[in-house]
Amino acid sequence: MASRLSEETLSGDLAGIMDAGHQGLVIESERRMPMLQPATIDLDALLLAEDPEAAVQAVPTQQIFQALLAKGPEDCIELLPLLSEDQVVRLLDYDAWRQDALEPRRAVRWLSLFKEVSDEEFYRRFRDLDEEYQLALLGPMIDLVDEDQYEKLGTQDQDALYRLPCGTLYYRIKTEDPVLVEFVTSLVEATMASDISYAYAMLAHAAFMPPHESEAQISQFRRARLTEDGFVSYQESLAAFRPIELKPLEQRWLLQQVSAVPGVDALVQKQAGEALFLEQVLKRTAQSDQDGNIDLWQRLLFLANSLCAAALVEPDDLNGVRLLMNHAQALVSLGLEHLASGDVTLAAMVLKQEHPQTLFRVGLTLVRKLADAMLEQCEKHGLPGVDDMRRHLRLDKCGALLLLMDKKLLPILGFARVETLKGACNRLPVRPLQFRVDGRGASGVVFTPVNSMASLMTLASQLDAIAGLLAVASLGDEDQQAATTALDQRLMTALARVLTGGQFRSEPLSLSEFERLVSLPAESAQGFASDVLASIEGSLRLALAPGASAGWSVSRAAGLMVSDPVHGTLADIADLLLQLGTACTYAKDLPSLAAQRSAMASLINIVSSEEMQS
Amino acid sequence: MTLAKQPNFLTVEDCAEISQLMDRKFAGLLKQRYFEAAVNKDSQGVYAKVALRNQSGSFYYPVEARVAHMNHDFDERAAAFFLIDYITEYFAEYFRADGDVFLPIDWNEYEWGGVSLQLKGQLLNLEVERLADALLAGDSAGDQLR
After folding, report:
1. What totals of helices (H) and strands (E) does chain B contain, helices first?
2. Each residue of A256-289: pLDDT tens digit?
3. Rounded to a whole number, what is the distance in angstroms from the first to the last CA of chain B?
4. Do B33 and A6 touch (CB under 8 A)?
5. Selection from B111, B122, B102 nearest residue B49 by Cα
6. Is there a contact between B87 and B35 (Cβ–Cβ < 8 Å)?
7. Which residues of chain B does A5 touch, with a Cβ-Cβ cutoff of 8 Å?
8. Nearest of A34, A29, A36 to residue A430 by alpha carbon
């Protein structure tokens, strides 16, 4: 579809959306992190404080902003006059911009609230903004007309002008947006009433300012201010997602671990449903260091803010920031648990000395190593498009990578496996939590952040299962069909041939082989299946033996000790055998060979009728 | 809104593709809901309707837009995409504000990129409406509303 929407707005945008990492996938957290959620600011309590102005101004603006949005700024008129000049500017920094462009209507929403307080307050608050903000807002909306120009205009144009008190100058409002028109007229009236010379200067500057100059300047100032809160540029934000060298960090904390004397309960046994490791560490330190935990929360918020640009989250997107905070905590917790080897006492030391961004990158690197090892296996087995995928992963182009996986690997690996792979390669790494039917009735996946070593091991096992299947399929055809035939079909064809007494080969079954398969008694099939499973298990374990060159395990390649890498592959093979058995039982009852063939054609490769005849 | 076969205008298949693209764009925010897009045109201009809904219809939020494309430098197809672009932007804002940005229920003037368009939207519960219709028709299915 050659269209603006499909090519630019949606399709073109889709890589960007997928690149952001949080919007294109359904993600739900397994665990809540109540200790790490920011305390909600009670705006009413601030108003009742002994010195309300000081109390309001002592709160970080981002928290005030979130509280105001949650309550609705229109319902907070009493509090607005108590905000400092800097806080008002920062409110506009957060909320009045979209993709680095000032949106007057959004700014006007905040500024007009001061008019509800009083005209004087309205004028004062506008005047207290940076000069560039004032001009960037008014410049595009104001034109100044002198008496000579006025005389040359037609009656209709003259009627559209507003006369200034001197009677020799007029101003025109260039926009037709009623909200903006109302704002400008109210502002000029309020300013005239309070400071007439300032009003003239403001209008003159706004009218004669070169277009976009003030906006460009204030955009720079805004960026600098946002950087103080952690909202860094896109490039800097991407830096937080770069893998980190693990060895030096691991060695440093391994030495500490050896010298530390762990307490009786220092080593934490993680169980499903337990609190996040990070929370357990914070609980431990909360008794002795409450201030430290508040400081950590600020640092985590700073980290989440710094991820915003890469994740395409605007500062005013409270949901987005909250979601990033959850992901940041998940990976920080994973990195912390890894460096401290699950030792809470040591983790408290790590947390004090390492910056959350370092821990975040440690967590991210652990998952990236798995993803890279998986792609390496895919490339080794000749799956299509994998060299491009590995390049995208190296260049951190997660969106393009995910779309390429959908395009190239979906027909080969199937939905569930590709989704698992996509989760591991996502900018914010996730693993499948459950498969379910979406609102439209199609298959869908709910992902969850990889937030602990246990969760990482689960993901590693899932990837091991895929890598194991690729290795087994390779035994059947030396990967000659890897780029063109679905993995399940290759495996099922080879399994079917073994059940009929042949070799484990995935070339299409001949007619006689197919007939033998369909007429095979169930008991014999079960016996053969057990032998096949045992044989496959032997091959897989042999390839994992110390010194073996053809290691297929992704977890081993990433340095993770999954309890049994073979288990997932065997379970999947057993499932394929079961599907094959069920299909054969069904096919047996069909009246003709052609019908039987057609019933099983989606599962296994059978030579075509023409080939049979020839 | 029905869609007649018109040359160079969006087809039903195009609309289905648009719906699926929007589903993918907002996948993480849909909460078991999905989009349905449709377009139409008459002598007054081009119309687009994108509904965010769940399967049962208990959540049904159609957002409709129209533009008198002949007043602007648009052909009908471009006008339809312009409207759908605008509605997509609206839904981005809607999700960002956690569903707290509603539109007027009757046509209201908006301006985007110097083009005037009209927009309306209303949150409906089709499930309850169906039951109410059944109740009024004396059907026993409507008894659930009593």
Report:
1. 3, 5
2. 765 554 443 444 444 445 678 988 888 887 766 6
3. 32
4. no
5. B122
6. no
7. 18, 21, 81, 84-85, 88
8. A29
How many beta-carbon pairs below 8 A join chains A and B?
Answer: 74
Give me the sheet containing B60-67, strands edge to edge. Answer: B34-42, B45-53, B60-67, B115-121, B108-112
Number of domains comprising chain B: 1
What's the CA gap between A410 and A416, in Å, rounded?
9
Q: How far is CA A400 from the centre of its chain?
A: 14
The domain in which residue B63 lies consists of: 12-145
* Cα gap B74→B72, rounded to integer Å: 6
Q: Is residue B7 in a domain?
A: no
* Tens digit of each residue's pLDDT (9 = 90 or more) over A435-462: 888 777 778 899 999 999 999 999 999 9
Tokens representing residue A400 in the block:
């393009």
SS3 A142: strand
Q: On the CB side of B39, how many CA atoms lie within 13 Å of its CA?
A: 29
A6: nearest CA partner in chain B? B18
- Does B139 reside within a domain? yes
| Element housing A128 (H / E) | helix A119-128
Q: What is the DSSP string of A459-485?
A: HHHHHHHHHHHHHHHHHHHTTTTTTTS
Distances (CA, A) of A378 to A254, A346, A385, A412, B108: 33, 38, 9, 11, 54
Q: Are A171 and A199 in contact (CB under 8 A)?
A: no
Interacting residues of B82 by C-beta distance below 8 A, sequence separation 6+: A4, B67, B69, B74, B112, B115, B117
Contact assessment for residue A174 and residue A140, using Cβ atoms and an 8 Å cutoff: yes
% of chain A with per-residue pLDDT over 90: 48
Query: How close is the nearest chain B Cα to the Cα of A25, in Å?
Result: 5
Nearest Cα residue to A277 out of A365, A361, A370, A359: A359
Nearest CA in chain B to A14: B25
Residue in A189, A216, A218, A221 with CA at minimum distance from that of residue A202: A189
Structure-block tokens of residue A146: 């002198």
CA angle A255, A261, A262 (to 5 degrees): 105
Contacts of A27 (CB under 8 A, 6+ apart): A323, A428, A430, A446, A447, A448, A449, B28
CA dihedral for A365, A397, A325, A373, sign (positive or negative):
negative
Residue A4: what pLDDT?
Answer: 43
- Domain presence at residue B41: yes
Distance from CA of B133 to the nearest CA of A (A): 25
In-domain check, residue B138: yes
Neighbours of A126 (CB within 10 A): 22
